[in-house]
Amino acid sequence: MREETALELAVGLLQLPSRARALRDAPLPRDVDALLAIVAGEGRASADAARLTGLPETKVGDAAGFYIEQILLHPDADSYRALGATAEATNDQLRRNMALLLKWLHPDHEANGERTIYVSRVTNAWNNIKTADRRLAYDATRKWAPPTRPQHQAPGSAPGRSPMHQRNGHAPVRAARPAAAPRVAGVGGRRGRPRRRGSIWRILGMLLGRVRP
After folding, report:
1. In this structure, what are the phi and psi dihedrals at residue 125, rounded to the nearest 5 degrees?
2. Is residue 152 a part of any domain in this protein?
């Protein structure tokens, strides 16, 4: 049986959002970085995806963004998955994916800026594994972490909606609310040091020069 591509999975998820629960437990497709290129507006990624699927570019962008929100940036996703990669990814791959995600999440990329709520998830994931020492420490926490228990919805409560759900009117799927990644020894940087406003986007500006197609 042929393995579905990332684009096929994304389009299928947009059409049937209830697939999100199964996809969150499944390995990422090998070409998930194609979705990052689409949402970041890299080259002809959107045009090529529209030609392959027969869908408008806007629909392709919606599908890629919805997949990233629900599968990569879900609260239960580890730092590798949040960056659209696996534990076998190189540091250059992780850096490139991080830069593409931040380009997509930049307020200038979308007028209403709804997706900026995911910025902290991406930056926390990158901070956990951006150096060899931090990656080693983070991998140790993943190895010994207990399995995540499934969360059940309380009777009568309504699941949250992601920005993509609100725009497209799909059935609710538990939204990927940002949550700070757990700190371990040697991970997470210095405490008590204030973050300079706008520093994330200045760093992104420098990184983007390294991720041109």
Report:
1. -60, -45
2. no
Residue of 124, 119, 117, 121 lying closest to 162 (CA atoms): 117
Tell me how many domains the chain contains: 1
First to last CA, the chain: 32
* Structural domain contains residue 155: no
In a domain? residue 1: no
Alpha helices in 41-193 (DSSP H): 45-53, 57-67, 79-82, 91-105, 119-129, 132-144, 163-168
Residue (of 189, 187, 174, 186) closest to 76 by Cα position: 174
Q: Domain residues for 138?
A: 6-143+160-184+195-208
* Structure tokens that stand for 85 in this block: 């990669």
Retrieve residue 135's tokens. 């990656």
Task: For residue 148, tell me if it sits in a domain.
Answer: no
Q: How far is CA 147 from CA 25, 28, 103, 142, 201, in A?
A: 12, 19, 32, 10, 35
Span 10-67, pLDDT tens digits: 999 999 999 999 999 999 999 999 999 999 999 999 999 999 999 999 999 999 999 9
Phi first, then psi, for residue 63 (nearest 5°) are: -65, -45
User: The whole model's pTM is what?
Assistant: 0.70
